[in-house]
Amino acid sequence: MKDNRIILPFLNSRAALFSVFFCFCLLIVGCGRKESNDAEGFSVYCLDANDTKIASEKYTPKGKDTDSLILELVERMGKEPRDISLKQAIPDNVKLDEYSFNEQGDLSLYWSASYGNFTGVSEILRRAAIVKTLCQIPEIKNIQFYVAGQPLTDSNMNAIGFMMADTFIDNTGETAYMQTALLGMYFSDRQGTGLVKVPVEITYDATIPMEQLAMEQLMKGPDSIEGSDKKELLKTVPEGTKINKISVKENTCYLDLSSEFMEKRSDISDEVAIYSVVNTLVELPAVNKVQFSIDGKQVLLFDDRVSFGEPFECNLDLVEN
Q: Does the global pTM surpass 0.90?
């Protein structure tokens, strides 16, 4: 299997990228790659201003062979779109260090470490834009990403592997990327004094952040989980509780809930109510601690007796074996 790796050591500026591009144009006869006959009318994908969906603009490339098209389209995705309501898929600080392409149509893109700064919806939409743009090159069938030399992984630390254009499903202007994940949910035991871990496998739209997905599943309670022993488990999050905001920064999940969360169920302990949420979120690879807030404000005490102002770490002492 022929696999040509192209190293791009000078892709630290757009000017350098053009230099490499023209070098490939000069070397095209020696490369022996098959020229693309249908190189006009590419859709170059970009993001909307709020990182909620992708859009595209038509672009006619100058290059004709596969190598030239890869470089030129990556270059184009790193420029501001003509429509001022859109933004580029590849930010200025993200560089393509090298790529490899084989005769089976497998393209591997090696991004600089700065690509790893993007997570959740923002990363998925950028990846969708890049894959959908480059998969229009006739010889390219599958694309995989590397970041700082390592395979790109999902929120469960599984390598994402090769993707195709139809990996990302367009639905009313938004891009959905379906994945399967195994989540660990912590519900109360029947006595309300301990936690029971319940594994839950779900198929979901990966444009939803994993921490939000886990919290929403926990809020539904054990009755929503097929195969769980519902008679032995209690829901821990009070009815009516809403997620105002949830995000992860430096391995801490910042969770802002509505005031209903403070109206704890009378049949479970304070510790069970708190650590049901904490343990569930800390199951995620990117989360080590959970910092609560209520309606945007820091609350010092939970149920007027449990310290609630500092970040919580996982508590396995409450978990039944």
A: no
